[in-house]
Amino acid sequence: MVASTSELKTLFASLDGDADGRISAAELRAEFLKLALHCDAEEERTRGLKEAFGMYEMEEGCITPASLGRMLGRLRNGRGIGECRAMICRFDLDGDGVLSFDEFKIMMSA
């Protein structure tokens, strides 16, 4: 991806914390630390979501209406198969009737 001049100016301005027209080593270090902390937090979130996703008794590596129903039953929040299909349909982006991990991540972010 090639950034436009406008995008580069915006990026530069965001890094130039004291607005002196230069980016100091301290400003770069601060931005790097923010980025590193964000990456660590994102990795931790993904790990937690994978663990939650794995709690479902899955068929073919996806959450099916039946596996959703079983999990909800264990949580004492049972639903019928039709309700489970409707819940899955809301986040089933590819229309295959099941939730993949990527679709599950989107659902959990909603």
How do the helices and strands follow one another from N- to C-terminus?
HHHHH
Overall number of domains: 2
Distance between the termini: 29 Å
Q: Rounded to an integer, what's the Rg over CA atoms?
A: 22 Å
Average pLDDT value?
83
The CATH class assignment of the largest domain is Mainly Alpha
Q: What name is given to the CATH topology of the largest domain?
A: Recoverin, domain 1
Which structural class do you get from the secondary structure elements?
mainly alpha
Number of DSSP helices?
5
Tell the overall outline. elongated
Taking pLDDT < 50 over at least 5 consecutive residues as the criterion, the unreliable ranges are none
Largest sheet: none
At CATH level 2, the architecture of the largest domain is: Orthogonal Bundle
Sheet-strand content, in percent, reads under 5%
Going by CATH, what is the homologous superfamily of the largest domain?
EF-hand
The percentage helix is 55-70%
Q: What's the count of strands?
A: 0
Question: Explain this structure to me?
Answer:
This protein is mostly helical. It folds into two domains: 1-44, no CATH class; 55-110, Orthogonal Bundle (Recoverin, domain 1), CATH 1.10.238.10. Helix content is 65%, strand content 0%. It is built from five helices and no strands. The chain has helices spanning 5-15, 25-54, 65-74, 81-91, 101-109. Helix 3 (65-74) packs across helix 4 (81-91). The longest helix is centred in the middle third of the chain and has 30 residues, at 25-54. The protein is elongated, with a radius of gyration of 22 Å.
